[in-house]
Amino acid sequence: MTATGTFTSAAFIRSGKVRDLYAVDADRLLLVASDRISAYDVVLPTPIPDKGKVLTGLSRFWFAETARIVPNHLVATDPGSLPPTWAGRAAELRGRMLLCRRLQMLPVEVVVRGYLAGGGWKDYAATGAVSGIRLEPGLREGDRLAAPIFTPSTKAESGHDEPISFDTLVDLLAAPGRDAGELAEGVRDVALRLYAHAAAACAGAGILLADTKLEMGLAGDGTLVLADEVLTPDSSRFWDAAAYAPGGPQASFDKQYVRDWLDRAAWDRTDPGPALPEDVVSGIRARYVEAFERITGATFARYLEEDVIAR
Ligand code: Q0Z
């Protein structure tokens, strides 16, 4: 029984579809973005090289961009800032890790929509409202909303998140000695300001930010903090402005290439998905890299180089 082995196995908390979470110490967590890709809710057996680094690079970009709007959980990105027990994993972590402050996570998904897509479109089509917000009649799938809307949802352990009204959000945020109404208003205000800032930045890069799912938590002193990954293609819908054609489903900037290939592969969308051929893998990788480069204005090669130099 080595100290290293003991710590490493004790540190693992859980895996999401495409990310892994570890405990570093009492007040810090490590988020590691893998190269796994999911499509139609199934994790495919073929990884996309550098996908985890692209998404981590985008989160890092947005944390820096939005720090004036809301504090965030990011502590460090350099493997050298981890305790010595992690030294053997530095190479695999570089560029894809986020060392974070451990927060008391809010038990909801914080969603903002600027366009009608996905679950928002389904709810509107069925009821004329999304998360209890009644929208003007006659909207089509993919239409831009007159103003972005805050549409929180539950955090489902399995299956899909359910939309909730603002009043239900207040109920879910209730805790002794806390003004849940004020907290919910703070969450909504920060979420709408984050969306407005990011949508404007994306628009300048020819990308429409259709919607985004954020996670927030509370620091020990009660401060609202932005957490998890932010404004990545896995947490947001990015559309190519040049191809925008409302009145039906929009092509996803990053995933359309894999979805189009899967649609032709006659796969029934049950686990396991089919292995991806090499040319499809490189095509998907190129889309992720293009999203990174358009949004950040930096080359992905430069991101990788800068990350080799420990900072
Ligand atoms: C994020 C998740 C992942 C699976 C917990 N700063 C924080 N403080 C407390 N908890 C979290 C965070 Cl980011 C936290 N998740 C989501 C991430 C794999 C699930 F990498 N869970």
Describe the structure.
This protein has 311 residues and is α+β, with helices and mostly antiparallel strands. The chain contains nine helices and 16 strands. The strands form four sheets. Strands 8, 9, 12, 13, 14, 15 and 16 form a seven-stranded antiparallel β-sheet that branches. A five-stranded antiparallel β-sheet has the order 1-2-3-7-6. A hairpin with a 5-residue loop joins strand 14 (207-218) and strand 15 (224-227). The site of ligand Q0Z has 17 residues, from strand 1, strand 2, strand 3 and strand 7.
Mean pLDDT: 95
Number of helices: 9
Residue fraction in strands: 15-25%
By oligomeric state, this entry counts as: single chain
Outline of this structure?
Helix content is about 35%, strand content about 25%. The protein has about 300 residues and is an alpha+beta fold.
Name a few traits of the molecule:
five-stranded antiparallel beta sheet, binds ligand Q0Z, disordered N terminus, 9 helices, 311 residues, alpha+beta, seven-stranded antiparallel beta sheet
